[in-house]
């Protein structure tokens, strides 16, 4: 989970102010956690409360999203429009979203799951309580699957092959080709999850994964969270990044993060 939160914080100043160079400041003074981290922790809290039972977990997720949304109503960058309306309405039914919110909040599943199949199934549940469109579910599952494969020692080539085959994402593109094609802000799973995974697959270490994804000049905090969730499992995360994230988020976040990551 900490990798997703690091990526979120790093991207928080660049969502609406895209970077112009690869050597951007990673943690500007105004950077902070956003809705991505809040909902990441909410998913972790729900898993700790309800476990993997589908019905119980679905209810716990809905409760956690409403609870954390009420406690942190105006995060940096704000919640997505449809999710904000869902929070305000107090509804408990999904709203058929294909937005990338389902993928940015799924990292707790990567540490919690005990098999690839369980990671994909739990990702489906965490997505479908709000993002029950097939693309919303697919984005969460692909992120969780890539992270679980990374966690359990699969090399990058195998991760690329599996995600391409299982989810149909084109991972043959490169960060350079995406930038040359004018890639910019997108908020759908189908136009951010594969790009975030490409940023990971091209990386040499955790920092370059985060820089790769933010330099794509897209939905920087959310893509940082997606890329960071996977890269954390594959690379050693610099301790200074971990320390910065832990100093930035509330203490109650750390309790959830530590409890989930203890399962790894």
TrEMBL record:
Name of this chain's protein: Dinitrogenase reductase
Transmembrane helix listed as a keyword: no
Residues annotated for Mg(2+) binding in this entry: 34-36, 219, 221-222
Gene Ontology MF: a single term: metal ion binding
Cofactor binding, per record: Binds 2 magnesium ions per subunit.
Keyword Isomerase: no
Pfam family name, one: ADP_ribosyl_GH
Residue ranges the record marks as coiled coil: none
Keywords: Magnesium, Metal-binding
Organism: Corynebacterium phoceense
Cofactors demanded by this protein: Mg(2+)
């Amino acid at each position: 989970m900490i990798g997703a939160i690091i990526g979120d914080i790093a991207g928080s100043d660049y969502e609406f102010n895209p970077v112009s160079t690869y050597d951007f400041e990673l943690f500007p003074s105004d950077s902070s956690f956003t809705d991505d981290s809040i909902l990441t922790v909410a998913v972790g809290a729900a898993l700790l409360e309800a476990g993997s039972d589908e019905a119980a977990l679905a209810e716990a997720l809905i409760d956690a999203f409403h609870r954390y949304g009420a406690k942190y109503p105006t995060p940096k960058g704000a919640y997505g429009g449809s999710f904000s309306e869902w929070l305000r309405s107090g509804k408990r039914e999904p709203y058929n979203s294909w937005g990338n919110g389902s993928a940015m909040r799924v990292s707790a599943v990567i540490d919690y799951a005990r098999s690839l199949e369980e990671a994909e199934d739990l990702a489906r549940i965490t997505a479908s309580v709000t993002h029950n469109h097939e693309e919303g579910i697919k984005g969460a599952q692909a992120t969780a699957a890539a992270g679980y494969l990374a966690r359990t020692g699969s090399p990058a080539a195998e991760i690329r092959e599996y995600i391409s085959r299982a989810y149909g994402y084109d991972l043959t593109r490169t960060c350079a080709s995406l930038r040359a094609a004018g890639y910019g802000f997108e908020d759908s799973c189908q136009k951010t999850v594969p790009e975030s995974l490409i940023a990971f697959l091209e990386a040499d270490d955790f920092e370059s994964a985060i820089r790769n994804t933010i330099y794509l000049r897209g939905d920087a905090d959310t893509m940082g969270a997606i890329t960071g969730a996977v890269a954390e499992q594959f690379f050693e995360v610099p301790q200074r990044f971990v320390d910065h994230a832990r100093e930035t988020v509330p203490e109650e976040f750390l309790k959830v993060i530590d409890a989930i990551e203890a399962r790894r």
